[in-house]
Specification:
By secondary structure, this protein is α+β, with helices and mostly antiparallel strands. Helix content is 43%, strand content 18%. It is built from 16 helices and 11 strands. Strands 1-2-6-3-5-4 form a 6-stranded mixed β-sheet, sandwiched between helices. The protein starts with 10 loop residues before the first strand and ends in an 11-residue tail after the last helix.
């Protein structure tokens, strides 16, 4: 346990148009991070119009009334800064890190595209970015080994009517069908100041920074008609184990598993995060030690949690099967290690190691102004509570062995399990199993398997 946990001191205010502004001063270095979260992600999309949230992440860099196409990036880089954006199921965000004397440049750029992006949106820009996104889907999902895993897992874990059922990237058909008016309506609905959080962290004066925010953002009108989300609740467990076998262009068989888990923000998910460290956090973890180093039946292993705020999160993992090893043997060992957590308390040494790794990750991240800005935006957007930035590490450090056992019992159940097995195209499962079994038989004096 640390003797002290550093505290992030911040101000938290709203403009009259609803924009939430969180500012944290840090004068250690002459840099500033500007981070803007919009409360819109793929879960806000409707059937037939998937992929819009991610498409807009790309469109947002195609210019606005006073900024030319791709000029946003050029201006930030010319000022010595970096920038990007990202989309997820629960949000879309945009961020810049610049020398602190360039704060107003970042604020002006973000305000201009929030207020006037549709002035520059054309059919040409839409068509261009639609093709960019489709190529990204091909590169990251369709043509990457095991790349369709997350899409398939979400589809298995959430019913078709649930907004987490489809992936953030969307479908090719929906992207092809997206019209200029469809995309414009999506922007007018969700890209409003009362649906956003702006966090500023770094070498700034709070009053001066807030005045600049007022100057650039205050005149942007709110949207009082943002549609509420429907009921996203789902049972914590599935109605039974679900299996899928995928023959694909993959180098080795891989067994993927997935489970519904407590929602992001639930303390039970903190315990599950630490369970992930115990199971697959580094070479000394349980799965690495048994499957990779001792039994040598897996090339690599992983287990992680994706925290969602609507209905359930997802805990997922995999084990890549070594050549000549039975797929069933690897799956059995993987599931056996998960189920051990449901009956045996983790040791004090294991829990201390997991907490130390988590503490190092948390403190390392919070040293960076861009990470602090992102977390302030995240906790404000998802939980209406930026102060969680100061309470998450103590929550992790307070997790007990009993809490890990209890959440493992609730999550790692056979009736809550999805198993997706990837096999190389042309893979002969029966012959592979026989070969693997023969390889484990004792040899006679001439070296021939009995």
């Amino acid at each position: 346990m640390p003797t002290s946990v550093p505290e992030v001191v911040f101000s938290d205010q709203h403009l009259d148009n609803g924009l939430r502004v969180v500012i944290a001063e840090d004068h250690l270095a002459p840099v500033v991070a500007v981070n803007l979260w919009y409360d819109v992600g793929s879960k806000h999309e409707v059937p037939g119009k998937t992929g819009f949230a991610h498409l807009f992440e790309h469109v947002m860099f195609q210019g606005s009334r006073h900024v030319g196409k791709a000029e946003h990036i050029a201006l930030v880089q010319a000022a010595g800064g970096t920038m990007n954006g990202s989309t997820w199921l629960d949000r879309t965000n945009y961020f810049e890190t610049l020398p602190s004397n360039q704060l107003e440049l970042a604020l002006w750029l973000e305000a201009d595209r929030m207020a006037t992006l549709l002035d520059a949106l054309s059919q040409e820009n839409l068509d261009n970015q639609r093709e960019v996104v489709k190529n990204e889907k091909r590169w990251s999902y369709d043509n990457r080994p095991y790349g369709s895993f997350q899409e398939k897992l979400q589809a298995q874990l959430f019913p078709a009517e649930h907004p987490y059922h489809h992936s953030t990237i969307g479908s090719m058909d929906d992207l092809d069908a997206a019209s200029l008016e469809d995309v414009s309506a999506f922007f007018r609905t969700y890209y409003a100041p009362n649906n956003a959080v702006l966090s500023i962290v770094g070498d700034v004066d709070t009053a001066t920074a807030l005045a600049a925010v007022e100057r650039f953002f205050a005149a942007i009108p709110a949207n009082p008609a943002i549609p509420p989300l429907g009921d996203l609740s789902v049972p914590l467990t599935l109605d039974g184990e679900r299996r899928e076998t995928v023959f694909d262009r993959v180098p080795l068989p891989r067994v993927h598993v997935g489970f519904r888990s407590p929602v992001f923000g639930d303390p039970a998910l903190d315990a599950l995060d630490l369970a992930g460290q115990i199971l697959s956090g580094g070479k000394g973890s349980r799965l690495n030690r048994r499957l990779v180093r001792e039994e040598r039946i897996a090339q690599d292993v992983a287990l992680f949690t994706m925290g969602f705020v609507g209905g359930a999160s997802v805990t997922a993992g995999w084990a890549t099967v070594r050549p000549g090893v039975s797929v069933a043997r690897v799956e059995a060992a993987l599931i056996e290690e998960l189920e051990r957590l449901t009956t045996e308390l983790v040791t004090d040494d294991e829990l201390s190691r997991a907490k130390a790794l988590t503490e190092a990750d948390e403190l390392g991240s919070l040293q960076r102004v861009e990470e602090r800005a992102d977390r302030l935006s995240m906790y404000s957007t998802l939980f209406d509570d930026p102060g969680l930035i100061n309470r998450m590490l103590p929550r992790y450090l307070a997790v007990t062995p009993e809490a890990i056992r209890d959440v493992a019992r609730a999550v790692f159940r056979p009736d809550n399990r999805v198993v997706i097995t990837y096999l190389p195209e042309g893979f002969d499962a029966d012959a592979e199993v026989l070969s693997a079994e023969a390889a484990t038989q004792p040899a006679d004096a001439e070296g021939v398997a009995a």
